[in-house]
Design goal:
Elements: E1 4-7, E2 10-13, E3 18-24, E4 32-39, E5 46-51, E6 58-60, E7 68-73, E8 78-83, E9 92-100, E10 113-114, E11 118-123
Parallel strand pairs: 2-11
Antiparallel strand pairs: 1-3, 3-8, 4-5, 4-9, 5-6, 7-8, 9-10, 9-11
């Protein structure tokens, strides 16, 4: 099992940047693909980005492609999401998720472990 704790959210002006972090417990972190999802009020949880177990492959939603970078450090059991050129529509609770076996997925059901989320608010 793995436990996930997100941090780094906050209030930022449009055009600004944030770097979200996800700290994972456990000694098998490298066996998990990791993903970031977000959920705005009244909307379904949506895929943002994912990274495979090695960090060699990354995947992005079209809505953030070119503005987001996902990375991981298996030695430190951490995954980051760098978000640049933030827009008001990026406002949401951002969740870190882990999928055992290292296979990336763009749907929430593909992940067995979730963090509690961190709020990102982008003002116009």
């Amino acid at each position: 099992q793995v436990q996930l704790v997100e941090s780094g959210g906050g209030l930022v002006q449009a055009g600004g940047s944030l770097r979200l972090a996800c700290a994972a417990s456990g000694r098998t972190f490298s066996r998990y693909a990791m993903g970031w999802f977000r959920q705005a009020p009244g909307k379904e949880r949506e895929f943002v980005a994912a990274i495979d177990w090695s960090g060699g492959k990354t995947y992005y939603a079209d809505s953030v492609k070119g503005r987001a970078t996902i990375s991981r450090d298996n030695a430190k059991n951490t995954v980051h999401l760098q978000m640049n050129s933030l827009k008001p529509e990026d406002t949401a609770v951002y969740y870190c998720a882990a999928a055992y076996g290292g296979s990336y997925s763009a749907i929430p059901a593909g992940y067995g472990y979730w963090g509690q989320g961190t709020q990102v608010t982008v003002s116009s």
